Amino acid sequence: MPQLTAKTLIKGALDLCSLPDIYFQIREMIHDPRFSMNDIGLVLAKDPALSIRVLKIVNSSFYGFQARVDTISRAVTIIGIDDLESLILATSVVDTFKKIPSEIINMTDFWMRSVNCALIAKLLAKKSAILHSDRLFLAGLLHNIGALVIYQKLPEKACRILMLAQGDRCLITGLEQEIIGFNYAEVGAELIHDWGLPDSLAETIRWQLNPCAAQTNKTDAHLLYLAVKLTDMVDMGTNVEEVLSAAPDSTLRTLGLNEFQVKQAVNLAVDEFKSTFDLLSPGKKFH
Predict the structure, then answer these.
(1) CB distance 45 to 34 below 8 Å
(2) What residues in the chain have per-residue pLDDT under 50?
(3) Is 132 helix (H, G, I), strand (E, B) or coil?
(4) What DSSP string runs through 62-74?
(5) Which of 135, 161, 129, 164 is nearest to 147 (CA)?
(6) How far is residue 104's CA from residue 150's CA, in Å, rounded to a whole number?
């Protein structure tokens, strides 16, 4: 029997974690000059729930526009095609994983943590004066997506890993490596690749645990690394000072951030969390 790898695990899981057809249809239209924004809006309108959620996000404090945006074509004009694609992906992916055993993971808790990480990543990117910081929102939202594949395809091993970790997230990566031979970040990168999403996003997610190893997207990898550590603060009983003192020197040097800016980003994420979570996950109850 061939050795199980992150890549082969994904190949056997795509029937369980495939994105909706409308996402791929819209993505193809976005990158085809033959289609106008009106054409894209008409296709998106075939999924009223998705189009309403996208417009709600565009009109929320997430973007902070003064004038109301009431059509998809107007939304694209204001936020740009890349952000529209990211928004549609973000709103679609939250609904993608339906078959995770509830005894392994509470999906509302999973997405609450993911949305928090997404906001921290985006806000850190803004503090770092990084252009198109919303790509970091997507990286934060999807940073732990590989864990869901592991839960789906290897539930017994996943339960064993979670039991041995006893809530300590710092132990999970090593336990995954020991028990299944690879970790959630590798699986997530392979899934991003199989979905046909940018290589830059796949690399950011792959190297979130070891950002210094990233080849072409070191800044994004360092940002995601720091966002994940800051997201884990409450669970781990740590604070910003401890997170920063434990981070590689190269992380803060690469990002050009100081402790005050990091604390600002974390506090802003707290302020924005509930409204963003409700927009992305309307069927999941915030608690």
Answers:
(1) no
(2) none
(3) coil
(4) TT--SS---SHHH
(5) 161
(6) 11
Residue 151 · residue 104 · CB < 8 Å: yes
| Cα distance between residue 178 and residue 161, in whole Å | 9
Written as one string, the DSSP assignment of 170-233 is HHHHHHHHHHHSS-HHHHHHHHHHHTT--HHHHHHHHTSS-GGG-SS-HHHHHHHHHHHHHHTH
Residue 260 CB burial class (10 angstroms; 0-12, 13-18, ≥19) = exposed
CA-to-CA distance for 144 and 157, rounded, in angstroms?
17
Residue with tokens 């950002």: 211
* Residue 174 tokens, joined: 């090593």
Work out the burial of residue 136: count CB atoms within 10 Å of its CB; fewer than 13 is exposed, 13-18 middle, 19 or more buried.
Answer: buried
Contact of 13 with 149, CB cutoff 8 Å:
yes
- CA separation for the pair 104, 110 (Å, rounded): 11
CATH level 2 (architecture), domain 1-18+99-287: Orthogonal Bundle (1.10)
pLDDT of residue 13: 67
State the span(s) of the chain assigned CATH 1.10.3210.10. 1-18+99-287
3-class DSSP assignment, residue 283: coil
Is 98 exposed, middle or buried, given 0-12, 13-18 or 19+ CB atoms closer than 10 A? exposed
What pLDDT does 159 receive?
93
Q: Is 115 helix (H, G, I), strand (E, B) or coil?
A: helix
pTM of this structure: 0.89
